[in-house]
Amino acid sequence: MPNPFRFSGVVAEPAFCDRLKERREMRRYIESSQNVLLYSHRRYGKSSLILKVFRELKNITPVYIDLYGTTHADEFIAAFLKGISSLESRMDRLMKMLREKIRSVGLNFSVDALTGMPTASPVFNRSAQDKTIDELFAVIEAFSRKKKLAVAFDEFQEVAAYGGDAFEKRLRKSIQQHDRIAYIFAGSQKHLITEMFNDRKRAFYLLATSFPLGRIPTRDYAKWIKRLYRNAGRSIADALIEEVVALCENHPMYVQEFFFNLWEAREPSFEHLDRVKCEMVAKRTPEYAYLWDSLTLNQKRALKLVALTAGKNIFAAQNLNKTGFRTASQVTAALAGIKKTGLLDKNKTWKIHDPFFRRWLTSEQN
Question: Which terminus in the chain has less CB density within 10 A, N or C?
């Protein structure tokens, strides 16, 4: 049996770990045409969850629009147009549907080399951006009269960077009028996307119900992992599974990657866990070093302070002295800057989000 674990790209069966509760809840929102704000850190499986739920929908047509890497309105329009191309599987129908509604820009039609499905792309007229966006929303609104839709904007926080207030207001003007479409706004930069929907001054204020995607519980991992091993005619001890999940702190991508590497061991042991852990940290040294070099001196000190103290008593004099700080205010300013990068979480205490980055920080190699 090939290695069943996957840690890059969208994850599907059999590598998708259940998330039964989240799938049920999201389907319930979609079936009621309720908007959802889905957010988490990167590599928690948001896209995989959306596409898994979309495959499970009945009598609702899904549309997936990937905004990752878009930097301005033209690219938003292109991504939107590519996404809604999935509404028609035949080229002649797609051309008819879009040409009837979209007149502000030219359209090119082609066949996607990967999927074999027809797709459309725009020939831009920059002065017609606003009208084009209105027309795109009109397309899906018209379609929704025949059949309910679920429209996912993945990495929606990108809109905040290139659109400005006027752009967000234009999107809301269209979206709030659609009562047969469930919009899913997904994002991995928590501070950006939650601000868009929770700031009273922003256009998307309270437009969607909050749906934070957390880490998968250990018991769910255990059932799923044992099933994959059993399907391959192999076995693994519960204690090993629990140790790996604890090492990865229930982080979905890291759990997948760890077991991907562990799969090569026919009879896994705790010694194998130590080897895989060290290899995973070593492999990331170049990217961690690059990240480290991008930080200011005080930000570096603050990260080490959090790593060494596990986020507890960080303002104690001995801890400040140990990491080179003179005042608590220096720490506060540095932590505020780091939080925007997504490296840190704060609940009751500060915590470095990436468990392997924390290990790298406290190792002898740094």
Answer: N
